[in-house]
Amino acid sequence: MANLVRSVAAPAPRTRARDQAAARYLFLVPYLIVFLLFRFGPIAGGWLISLTRWNLIGSPRWIGVANYRALWHDSLFWVSVKNTLAFTAMAGPMLILGGLALALLVDQPLRGRYLARVLIFAPYAVMSAVVGVLWNWLYDTNFGIINYYLSLLALPSVPWLINEHVALVAIVLTTVWWTVGYNMVIFLAGLQEIPTELHEAAIVDGATFWQRFRSITLPLLTPTTYAVVILTLINTGQVFDQIYVMTAGGPGTATLTLVQYMYYQAFQTYNLGYGAAVAYATFAVLLAVTLVVHRLFRREAAA
Amino acid sequence: MRKAIAFVVCMALGVLLAAQVHAAAPLELTFWGGWTGPDGDVMRAMVDQYNARHPDVQVTLTTLQWTPLFDKFLTSMRAGEGPDLMAMHPQDTAQFIEGGLLEPLTTFGSDVEVKAGDYDKNAWGYSSYKGTQYALPLDFHMHGLYYNVDLFKQAGLDPANPPTTGNALIDAARRLTIDAAGRHPGDPGFDAKNVKQYGLAFPNNHHALYIWFALLYQQGGGFSISGTQVNFDDGQGIAAWKWVEDLIFTHQVVPVGESNPAQDFLTGRTAMLIDGPWQMPAMQKQQGLNWATAPFPSVFGRPAVWGSGHILTIPKQRDRAKQVATLALAQWVVRNSDFWATSGNIPVFRLAAETDRFRRLKGRAAFVSMLPYEVILPNIVKSAQVFSAAAPSPIVQAAQAATLRNEDPATIVRTLRQRIDSVLAAP
Asked: In terms of pTM, does the model score above 0.80?
């Protein structure tokens, strides 16, 4: 405070700049305190826990990187890596392309587009546990409404959540229904930022919808697309709730994903240190995937 | 001056009043249990009754599924915020006792009014650890055979004589399994892809392993854990899995990968069900379902059935008065466990099991008759790791390899042994 008063009294340019910088940091302090306490603290703490053996009942014991070494030889861990990547590979494109397609659709001046936007986004507002229970009923092999409609079409019933080859696909479909509306909203915001003059000019020049889409919409949408792709990859890589409610990782290990496995180790079998190691391995996998995508976008932007 | 006197008098009255209120404030106790079905409602009703009859004590019941409940228990105990009364199963206690979380009952001396002799003789032993009593047993629950009386009659089976052996079970199940054209498994042209009614069902999760576990004992063997080794006979283990797999894949009387066997029994899509007594409240509620129970069949000659039970433990805490009040609460719950039995669980407190209120309850007799043959999982420190009901656990992996994949029984047994041994060997 004294500094500020003095700087007003004697406005030496250098000290003022320094004071302004200090003031800027001062304004950041409330956020930083919360960030350090509730974000960075637990993240760093998790790293330390991953270097210990801790069964939640006793005290943690330092064991260095032994958890990570064990992880390398843990077949269930690799199964969960494979399942997570498979889930991301299936759900990711559907969520991104689906979100874009839906955004393009409800961006058209059609009647009922506002209602359509609400209806598509609505599932996203539903709690994950409710989504899981709801879809468990829909997918039920014997009584589920999905199999009922399949039978009306004379198609065989599908053992959605109990067949090891189908369960993950079933979870993907649920996830797409549940969260595609979120991507649609982001894409829609991006679409509405594109100046209409560009489209009008293109139409005057006789450009078709596809030409406009490829030469105007897509390039100008790149920042939005980048955000949607990264967010989708991170969210699908951390899939947990709907699996926890619907299959709990089963049947067998068909839907065991990384976060599912972390939860199993840390909170179902009390290997807190090992669970933390799984969490950091998950972080590494997601970081690697994100970096690859980041590169691709950079190359695209440069080209 | 007068004002000052009035003020002082008021203050004094206030203090007196506050002291009075304080003396009348009931002792608050917390009670945690993993009862999330109809059983939770029954226990809540019991707690309400206790509160009404004991104005000096106010008990709050918290129910969560067992696994998250134990998470909450462990973390709360670390923070000194644990419950006053904690329900669990006999096989859960070792980990908590070794962690120093539970109070031995011996420390309460003569306050413990219900004794070993008041109980079914197995129950008391199951709730002690290394010779020390740590819990009051509340109930038993074990697998039994439910059957649909109407479907039995339709198939020409005698509902008064439910199957008691493995072969009788398969025979009845075959006659109760019907495809779209009315054929049974084994009939020429039986269409396994188009079955309208199945003879038998059981859960394909950890409960399928419990069936296997009982079948080991039926062959005269057993299942135990010593140090870093699991002990059971490979030959018996293979025979047991083979019998389970044959029901599904050879005799085709059990649906593959059924998501909700109990629900299918309730609606008459399956004629028999192997499950625990906790299903009985739902059966009683189901309109038009004519059901009955029978003991778990003896497949390999000797009777043996998987079982467990609920026990009441008193966690360690500084407030001795609370612990003593908690013990009184626990003893009241045990003494009134004939009411708890409406939740399906079988009381182990003799006087409660002998009341008319309990005996009038439908379907319980078959379960009670199995009490002497109940075998329970070993109570080990690593029970959460070995016996977790979560999908990646060794026992669920084995159960699903058999019930969903029809894997070679020898492979299942070998993998199960390896997985359990490696969990036990891990530091």
From this structure: yes
